[in-house]
């Protein structure tokens, strides 16, 4: 799986994410002068192994220039942040199904089950408003329902390998 970030300063953003990304997915950073004006359609969820580890990951991200973000979450156990160039990401509370550094790549979708099915990977779990696939190796690929309008730009994009 490959994630591409458009950035005003690709080396700086690459340095930030190198602290968190591990080697589970390929991250690519490309220059763009288009300003970020809306919530990204794709974001990363970082895993944690304990409440203390979650707090440590959040503290490291904030020290490296991340900021807390409000994307409408209410009373959730994860922490929503923005990287130094405004891209949203979450630091999840401990969940055993997420053993890697990157727990999931999350994609907003009007029809999560159809989007997950279109990857060619088997849908591992689904429910009201979400569907998940688990490409091996790597993090979960999760589609969550949104009624948000299509974004003007997709500053973060995901490309996954065909399972065939």
Automatic annotation (TrEMBL):
Return the Pfam families for the record: Glyoxalase_6 (PF18029)
InterPro entries membership: Glyas_Bleomycin-R_OHBP_Dase, Glyoxalase_6
Q: Which PANTHER family match?
A: CONSERVED PROTEIN, HYPOTHETICAL FUSION PROTEIN
Q: How is this protein named in the record?
A: VOC family protein
Domain (Glyoxalase-like): give its ranges: 3-92
């Amino acid at each position: 799986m490959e994630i591409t970030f458009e950035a005003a300063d690709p080396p700086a953003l690459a340095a930030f994410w190198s602290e968190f990304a591990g080697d589970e997915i390929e991250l690519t950073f490309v220059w763009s002068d288009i300003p970020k004006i809306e919530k990204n359609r794709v974001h990363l969820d970082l895993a944690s192994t304990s409440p203390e580890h979650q707090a440590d990951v959040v503290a490291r991200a904030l020290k490296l220039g991340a900021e807390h973000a409000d994307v409408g979450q209410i009373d959730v156990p994860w922490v929503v942040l923005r990287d130094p160039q405004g891209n949203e990401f979450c630091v999840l509370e401990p969940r055993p199904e997420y053993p890697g550094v990157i727990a999931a790549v999350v994609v907003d979708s009007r029809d999560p089950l159809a989007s997950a099915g279109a990857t060619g990977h088997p849908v591992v779990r689904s429910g009201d408003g979400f569907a998940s696939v688990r490409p091996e190796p790597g993090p979960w690929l999760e589609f969550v329902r949104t009624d948000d309008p299509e974004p003007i730009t997709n500053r973060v994009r995901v490309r996954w390998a065909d399972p065939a």
